[in-house]
What does this fold into?
Amino acid sequence: MNDMKKIIVAGIGPGSREDITPAVAEALRQADAVVGYQYYFQFIQPFLSQDCLCVDTGMKKERQRAEQAFLLAEQGKTVVVISSGDAGIYGMTPLIYEMNRERGGEVLIESLPGISAFQKAAALLGAPIGHDLCVISLSDLMTPWEVIERRIKAAATGDFVTAVYNPKSHGRYWQLYRLQELFLKWRAPETPIGYVRQAGRDEQEVKVTTLSDFDPEDVDMFTVILIGNSQSYIDKGRIITPRGYFAQEMKEDVKPGQRIMMDSFRTISGELHRKDWPLDHKWALLHAIHTTADFEMERLLKTDERAVETLYEKVKNGTLKTIVTDVTMVVSGIRKGALSRLGVEAKCYLGDPRVAGMSAELGITRTQAGIRLAVEEHPDALFAFGNAPTALMELCELVRKGKACPAGIIAAPVGFVHVKESKHMVKPFKDIPKIIVEGRKGGSNLAATLCNAILTFDDAEQLKPGRDL
It folds into this structure.
C-alpha cells in the first residue's frame, strides 16, 4: 500500500488482447485493484497480478463502480477503472472526473486511451473515416431523444461520416429506423453503411451495404454502425472515404474553374430535396440549378425517361451530329470543347440571309422562319429552344406534318405569351426524347446548359462536370 491516492481510467479496446495498448497493459500489471463491468474481466485476466483485487459489477452500475474505485484509492491503492473501447467515449472517464470533483478532488486521476469500437470497426470495414467524423449514441437513458434527433439531423446535413453507438436494445427498437429515415432525407440512397458486431471478439461479424438497403433488424446492442459521407464509396466490399473532397481531381491536374464547378455540383446535390433522382435526370437538373441558382428547377425540370442518356448515346454513336437552336445566345453557351470533341455542330439560322425574306413574305417571326429552314436541312437534329415560344410551336407543327423527326427537343423558352402553351404542345410526342422547363421560366442559358448536360453525360456518374471548360 502507498500514500498516493490514484485512479487510472483505462480503455481496454473493443475486445481482443491484441487491441489493448502497452500503456494499459502495464497499468493493469501494476494495479492493486481493478474495477469494472464483469463482462470485461475475461479480456484483461492475463495482465493481472495474482494479488490484484477485482471488483466487478453488472450493467448500469457505473456510479457504484466509481464509488468503489474512490474508496479503494482513498485506502492508498492504485486503482484501475476499466471501460471497453476508449474510456473517454461513452465510458467511465467523465464520471470519475465528476465524482472526484464532488469529493473534493483529492485523488489523482490519470486517463489512458484505448482503441475505440468505432476505430476497430472502421479498420475492419476498410477506410470509412478518412474525413470529418462524428459519433452519436442512440441511447436515451441520459440524453433526451429530442436532443439525439437534433444531432442526427446535424450529422446528416453536415455530411459527416457518422459512427452510431448503442443502435438498439430490447427496449429501444424504433430509434434506428428513425435515424435511417432522417439520413435518407439528406443523403443519397447509395451512401455506404458498414456495421460490425462484436468487433475484435470471437463472434465478430462485418457487413457492408447502402443506406437504402440497410435493415435495422440486422443489428443489436453489440453493433457499431458507420455511415459514409457523400464522397464515400464501396470498393471490393470495403468502404473508402477519400481524405479530401478533391484529392483525385487534384492528381488529375484539374483546372481551377472545373474544380469550382465540381464543388458547386456537390453542394447542389447535397441540397436537393429528393435524393434518388435517376442519374440522367439528376445530371440535367444539376446543370439547370448551377446555371440559374434556382432550386425551383427541381420542380420545373421534366425529362422523359432516359432522355439525357438516350441523346448522349445518339451523339456517341454518330447518329446525332447537329444541334439547332432558336437564338444565337444558345449556341454561344454550348461548350465548344465538347462539340469539337464529339464531332457535333451547333447552328442557329437567325443570321441566315433567307430568314428575313421568308419572315416578311409569310408573316411569321424570324425564329419561326429559322426553324423552317433548319428542318429542311436537318430534320433529325436536336432542337434546343431558350427564347422563342413561336419557334417551338413551329417545330411542333412541322413534326405533326411529318416534315421533322427531331432526335430530341429541349423546350425552355422564357416569357409570358404562348410560353406555357408551347411547352404543352411538345408533350404529346411520346417517341421524341424531351427535356422541358415547365411554366414561364426558361432562357438561352438554360437551353445551352441542358445541351451541355447531354454532351457530358459520361461524366455524370463521377459527378465530374466542367471537362470542356
Notes: Residues 8 and 80 are 5 Å apart (CA to CA).
